[in-house]
Design goal:
Number of strands: 8
Order of helices and strands: HHEEEEHHEEEE
Largest sheet: 6 strands, antiparallel
Number of helices: 4
Strand order of the largest sheet: 1-2-6-7-8-5
CATH superfamily: Hotdog Thioesterase
Oligomer: single chain
Distance between the termini: 23 Å
CATH class: Alpha Beta
Structural class: alpha+beta
């Protein structure tokens, strides 16, 4: 039997809470899950003074860009795992998070991180028994592509 709508909503609500509040670094960055889909995620955040990397120009710190892309891809991987195990309850699916970890992360910084709000999107390109691969993008509030990324995660 597939996970019913109530269990799916429970899973997504708990996943949002985990990524926004329980992972304290994400909370410090102000990351907010905006959209979840089958192997996809969109996370947004506002520019804050503590996220500035270059104080003279007010640019977003490269480490913040990298962390946002990594968090978004991790969230997309969890959505991919949920799709891969449709018979698991919300709690069983969330328990799989303890086995997920970043094993490779590449970020291409394309433009200065300027803007008032940023949106990071990720999609799973492949999920296997042990490894998941993802592609990510970060845009500013004007729709300008700031950075792209690719990452691999251990999922077993």
């Amino acid at each position: 039997m597939r996970r019913n709508a109530i269990e799916q909503e429970k899973f997504e609500r708990a996943l949002r809470a985990m990524f926004e509040k329980e992972i304290r670094f994400n909370d410090v960055l102000g990351l907010c899950v905006e959209q979840l889909g089958a192997g996809t995620a969109v996370i947004g955040f506002a520019m804050q003074p503590q996220l500035v990397g270059h104080f003279q120009h007010g640019r977003l710190h490269g480490g913040v860009i990298s962390a946002a892309l990594d968090a978004t891809a991790g969230c997309a991987v969890m959505m991919g795992i949920a799709d891969r195990h449709p018979h698991d309850s919300a709690d069983q699916t969330l328990a799989r998070f303890t086995r997920v970890g970043t094993i490779d992360l590449r970020v291409d910084y394309l433009r200065q991180g300027l803007g008032q709000r940023f949106s990071s999107s990720a999609r799973v390109t492949r999920i296997g028994g042990r490894i998941a691969s993802t592609q990510m993008e970060l845009h500013n509030d004007g729709g300008l592509l700031i950075a792209t990324g690719a990452a691999s995660y251990i999922v077993s």
